[in-house]
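Dear support,

Our group has been running a series of protein-ligand predictions, and this particular one with nickel (II) ion is the one our PI (initials K.S.) wants archived with full inputs and outputs. We had some confusion internally about which version of the output was final, so please treat the block below as the authoritative record. The input we submitted was:
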Amino acid sequence: MTSIKFLGQSSFLINFGGTELLFDPMISPNPMASSINLDEISAPYILLSHGHDDHVHDAEYLAKKNESTIISNFEVATWYGQKGIAYHPMNLGGKWKFDFGTVKMVQSVHSSVLPDGSHGGASGGFVIWNEENCFYFAGDTALTLDMQLITRTCPNLDFAILPIGDNFTMGWEDALIAADFIKCDTIVACHFDTFPYIKIDHQAALDGFAKAGKKLIVLEIGETIKI
Ligand code: NI
Ligand code: MN
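Confirmed final output from the archive:
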């Protein structure tokens, strides 16, 4: 069982085998996430899919406050390292066994630049597993055939967090195909509604998934579920 708390946009606090993992924290500038108290968020690890501000905005504050280790691509991780934050640099295709489980950094088709204009390396996603569970956090990405490699290189997925907001990433129609590529029928939605460009019709997305026999989970900000 993995508990998943949605913090808006692509921000999730995930309790994985007893360890809190914080993904892509962008909470304080998001008016939709005003119910979330930044100072109540604590995690020993912060995973960043790429350097865009809507994924890293609160990473420095939270990492310094909680003495977290940032896990990201080499360019993003070392940029935080220069601020005195603990980091673990990775890159696409590589995996590492942490105390909470194995993290594999996988391809995403997107861009990456850090808030001050520094080179943000290649954007990516993460597949994370321990003996019992495995999930995929896709980050920002287009639909890509590379997703099919996940089923060949990682354990079976219990669930996947996929962007469905369209415009900057795949929309729900492509996310449905992605679910096929990764052989996963339980999809948690992210990267929707935060900005006018990515406002979506929830019912259309839910109906589209239901028609295909898959489950799309669209969480409220602040909501926690267990999978
Ligand atoms: Ni992005
Ligand atoms: Mn984004």
